[in-house]
Structures are given as structure tokens and as C-alpha cells.
Design brief:
The complex is a heterodimer of chains A (249) and B (262). Chain A is of the alpha/beta class and 249 residues long. Chain A is built from 8 helices and 10 strands. Chain A has helices at residues 45-52, 74-79, 96-106, 111-124, 140-152, 170-187, 221-228, 233-241; strands at residues 5-16, 19-30, 34-38, 60-65, 68-69, 81-84, 158-162, 190-195, 206-211, 214-220. In chain A, α3 (96-106) packs parallel to α5 and α7 crosses α8. The longest helix of chain A has 18 residues, at 170-187. With 262 residues, chain B is mainly alpha-helical. Chain B has one domain. In chain B, 76% of the residues lie in helices and 0% in strands. Chain B has 11 helices and no strands. The longest helix of chain B has 31 residues, at 61-91. Chain B starts with a helix and ends in a 12-residue tail after the last helix. Classes of the chains: A alpha/beta (249), B mainly alpha (262). The A-B interface holds A 16, 50, 53-57, 59, 74-76, 78-79, 81, 83, 85-91, 93-94, 98, 101-110 and B 1-3, 5-6, 8-10, 12-13, 16-17, 20-21, 91-93, 95-103, 253-254, 258-259, 261.
Chain lengths: 249, 262
């Protein structure tokens, strides 16, 4: 285990009945790094997220977050984790501020401190003036921003993003991708970002290619290109998975 | 402190949702009111109710079914929150709750308390309307019924919580109406006293006497008149613990439904 790995997965397997969803998956995410979990739909990305967030328990393998075993010390592990699920989980009838206050309460943050952090995060995402609007009134891109702001409220060490750009238009998608990379850089935040869109990957990112429940390659983007002998991520991905993915902006 | 803040947060959210969903509140009231204003009025002459405890005299049918309708409000509320939890689970907001760094049993119990709070508010509003309509209830009854409503609201909420942990998909929910709500309601002392059922079918009466909903209704009925029905309270309490235990088991990451994904 690397000394600054915030997330370590070791030999994880998981099956839905007879159907194997994950097969001996091992990988890690380091502090301040943005790791892209790249895989086609059905590769096992969401299952992996459910295991990391302790929604499921895996019968074999271990997951450590900040050195805490997710199965043995779930609360300590979950404290370090911020999550944005694939589908929006905002309460549409509540205002942005109320949604964030609810999350702060679940994490035991004092009211005054919560108000302060909400202001800080919403300012960062350019959403402060929308704080008193109902989530229903926001468009998809803005809802996503609020969800990421919410996931950061309790100052997690690791941010999980499960295909956060799905359903967003091109400018919103680009803004979000840039923003997440800035977060990694500026706050030393580790990010595990599941996607099937190659153009969301920056050259400095780490890459974990997941296909049919197995890790096909992992390392810095450059290393994966070297391993596969390809010049572009797209070509490397096609070689590893035998399929082409969309790269449209 | 963390747990307390989280509990307040969960209850506050439920309260805000309740305020925002006025239609849900109105329909929760209209249902029992229809039974009270129309059904009970129609049946008043056909169904005679003999003097049975806690009543000290002959009572009108409207008076008899009022506790049953209070139970109905809470039964539907429990099922409604169960439905919304299945929906939340499919849509994801249940996940937000479950990935919080608190024991899952605590989170589920908090959710239950929040639901029961709404259920008691709904039942109280119905009771006030019934009183305004002319159902006579002793003044002390408004006070003594509260703990009964809290216990029955918790028990029926826990039933909903348990069901939500075992129902895989939203589509299966129609079955809950047929197999849980209707049998529980009709096979209870909500609409007719147990001795009436006994006269026509002893087996059904036997089943009804062990129905937790019967216990909840009888607990409320006695409490409305300042009496305490120990037997009913115990059955309600044990049912609450059983349903809650099953729900916590059902939501356990390595046991229940979260694994049995569609």
C-alpha cells in the first residue's frame, strides 16, 4: 500500500447471484490525485461505488479509506468520503440551502459552522445567489454543482463521482470537468471519477480501466499508454476493451 | 452531539417535506373523513354496537369507528413513507442517508421517528375534525391518546420500513395494498368489534385478535377515554420491535435488499 493512498481496493470480488460483477479488483487512489475509473456501461463501476460507500458488503477482498477498513470501521471510513451518485439525490421540494443543511446535520456539523461552509462552497461554485431557490428550479448543470458542493461540505479526503456529467450540455460538462480538476490541485482532494467518456480525462490524471468486472490497466495516463503501446487514450481503451467509446464534447 | 444533530436534521427534513406536500396531507385526511361522514353514516342503522369496554353506554357507529380511522390514518402514513423510501432508494436519496457516518440502525430509527411525528400530526388533525363534527371525546382523551398515537405510529411506520427493505421495486408496491393494507384494516377491530366477527367466523376472529393493527386500534380506543389497555400496548410494542429489527436486518449491507438489486 502506498503511504499516501487514500483509497485502496484489494482483490475485491462481487456477484449478483451467479452473475459476476467484479472480479478480483485491486487499485488505489492517492491524495491530491484525480483517478478516472473508465469503463463501458455495465463494466461494474456502480457496483464498485456501492461497495466503497458500504451500501453493499463484499464477501471477499478489502477496501480501506484513509487506512480504515470499510467493513470493520465503516463510520470512520465514511467520514472521509464525499459522494455524488449518478442520479441526482437532491430533495427537489427543498431549497438549495435546506438540502445542504440536511447534509451538514447528517455529518454532525454545527449549525453556525454549516451556514459558513454552505456560503463558502456555494460561492466557489457560483451558486450563492441561488441558495434560496428550490432545487426543482435549477437546471441539470446547476443541480450537479450543488451536489458536488454538498459532497464537499464535511471536508472529505476522497470524493467519489459516479458519472456526474450524464445529461449535461457541453458547456456545463466542460465547466464541471475543469472544476473537479481544480479541486484536486488546490485542495489536495483525491477524486475517483467513474465515466465512460474519454474526453473527461486530463493528461495528469490516473486511469483505471475496468471492463467486465476486471481491471484491465491502471496507472498514470502516460503509463497506461506505454503499457498498451498506443498514442491516444481512445486507442488504448479500444485495445483493452475491444470497443470504441464516445469522445464528443 | 453528532447523532442528535442528525436526528434533528432528519426530522426537520421530514417536517419540511410535509409542509411542501400539502396534497398528500389533504388526501391523507379526506380518506378517513369519507369513511366517517359517509360510510359510518350509512351503516349507523345496520350495525348495532353492544356495550363493550371502554364504552360505558351504547355508542353510535361513528363513535365506534373513530379510533379505527385514526389507526387508518397512521397505517396509510406508514405505507406512504414506505413507498417514498422505495422510491428514494431507486432514485438515490436514500443512499445519501445511508452513506452518512452514523450506524445504520440509528439512521433508520431516526427516519422512523420522523415518519411517526408526521403520522401523529395527521391523526391529531383528523381527531380535531371528528370532534368538531360531533364525535364526543372526553377532554382528557385528547391528552391520553397522544402516547397511544405515538406508539401505534411508530409500530405502523416500522412495518412500512420493514416492507420497504424487502420490496425490490416500486412496481411491486401495488401488491402491498392488496396483501398488507386491506387485510390488516379489514381483519381488525377498526370497523366492527371482534365479537361481531366471532359470531360469523371464529377463525377470522382468531386472526383478527392477533393482528397488530387490532392492537394499535384498541390501544388508541382505550386511550381516547383515558384508559390503558396493557395487552394492546404490549402487542403493539413487541410488533414495533420486531418490525424495526427486521428492517434493520433488511437494510444491512451484507444481508438484505441492497444486495438483491434488480
Amino acid at each position: 500500500m502506498s503511504h499516501n493512498a487514500i483509497l485502496t481496493l484489494d482483490n475485491m470480488s462481487y456477484a449478483y447471484g451467479a452473475k459476476k460483477a467484479l472480479d478480483r479488483v485491486s487499485c488505489k487512489v492517492e491524495e491530491g490525485h484525480c483517478a478516472i475509473l473508465l469503463g463501458p456501461n455495465g463494466a461494474g463501476k456502480s457496483t464498485l461505488f456501492s461497495l466503497i460507500t458500504h451500501l453493499y458488503d463484499a464477501p471477499s477482498g478489502t477496501i480501506h479509506i484513509g487506512g480504515h477498513d470499510v467493513r470493520r470501521q465503516p463510520l470512520k471510513a465514511l467520514e472521509l468520503l464525499g459522494v455524488v451518485f449518478q442520479q441526482s439525490t437532491l430533495d427537489l421540494d427543498l431549497t438549495v440551502r435546506q438540502n445542504l443543511l440536511y447534509h451538514a446535520a447528517l455529518h454532525g456539523i454545527k449549525r453556525r459552522e454549516a451556514e459558513h461552509r454552505i456560503k463558502e462552497e456555494l460561492t466557489r461554485f457560483g451558486m450563492l445567489e441561488r441558495a434560496h431557490e428550490k432545487a426543482r428550479q435549477l437546471n441539470g448543470g446547476h443541480r450537479r454543482r450543488v451536489e458536488i458542493a454538498r459532497a464537499l461540505l464535511h471536508h472529505p479526503k476522497l470524493l467519489l463521482l459516479d458519472e456526474p456529467t450524464v445529461g449535461l450540455d457541453v458547456p456545463s460538462r466542460k465547466a464541471l470537468v475543469d472544476h473537479i480538476h481544480a479541486l484536486c490541485r488546490d485542495r489536495q482532494l483525491a477524486v475517483l471519477w467513474a465515466t465512460h467518456l474519454i474526453d473527461e480525462i486530463a493528461p495528469q490524471d490516473d486511469l483505471i480501466v475496468l471492463h467486465q468486472g476486471q481491471v484491465k490497466a491502471s496507472g498514470r495516463v502516460r503509463e497506461v499508454l506505454e503499457q498498451t503501446g498506443q498514442e491516444t487514450i481512445e486507442a488504448a481503451f479500444t485495445q483493452l476493451t475491444g470497443r470504441k467509446e464516445r469522445t464528443l464534447w | 452531539m453528532h447523532a442528535w444533530r442528525a436526528l434533528m436534521g432528519i426530522m426537520g427534513r421530514e417536517g419540511l417535506r410535509f409542509i411542501h406536500q400539502r396534497e398528500r396531507f389533504i388526501s391523507a385526511l379526506v380518506r378517513p373523513l369519507l369513511w366517517l361522514f359517509i360510510f359510518a353514516a350509512g351503516f349507523r342503522s345496520t350495525l348495532g354496537v353492544a356495550i363493550i369496554p371502554p364504552y360505558e353506554t351504547y355508542v353510535l357507529y361513528e363513535v365506534y369507528i373513530t379510533p379505527g380511522l385514526l389507526g387508518m390514518v397512521q397505517l396509510f402514513n406508514g405505507m406512504q413513507s414506505s413507498l417514498s423510501m422505495v422510491y428514494d432508494r431507486e432514485m438515490g436519496s436514500m443512499k445519501t442517508l445511508l452513506v452518512s457516518p452514523l450506524p445504520r440502525s440509528f439512521l433508520l430509527t431516526s427516519k422512523l421517528l420522523a415518519g411517526a411525528m408526521i403520522s401523529v400530526i395527521q391523526a391529531t388533525v383528523f381527531l380535531l375534525i371528528a370532534a368538531a363534527y360531533g364525535i364526543e371525546i372526553p377532554a382528557i382523551g385528547f391528552l391520553t391518546v397522544l402516547p397511544a398515537l405515538i406508539l401505534s405510529g411508530l409500530m405502523l411506520g416500522a412495518l412500512g420500513l420493514m416492507l420497504s427493505s424487502f420490496i425490490k421495486q416500486l412496481e411491486n408496491f401495488a401488491g402491498v395494498m392488496n396483501f398488507v393494507i386491506f387485510p390488516m384494516f379489514f381483519l381488525s377491530s377498526a370497523l366492527y368489534p371482534l365479537w361481531r366477527i366471532q359470531e360469523s367466523n371464529p377463525t377470522l376472529a382468531f386472526l383478527a385478535s392477533y393482528n397488530p393493527f387490532t392492537a394499535a386500534v384498541e390501544l388508541i380506543r382505550f386511550a381516547l377515554y383515558g384508559h390503558f389497555n396493557l395487552n394492546a400496548a404490549l402487542i403493539t410494542l413487541f410488533s414495533l420491535l420486531f418490525f424495526l429489527g427486521m428492517a434493520i436486518w433488511g437494510y444491512n449491507p451484507s444481508q438484505g435488499m441492497m444486495n438483491r438489486r434488480a
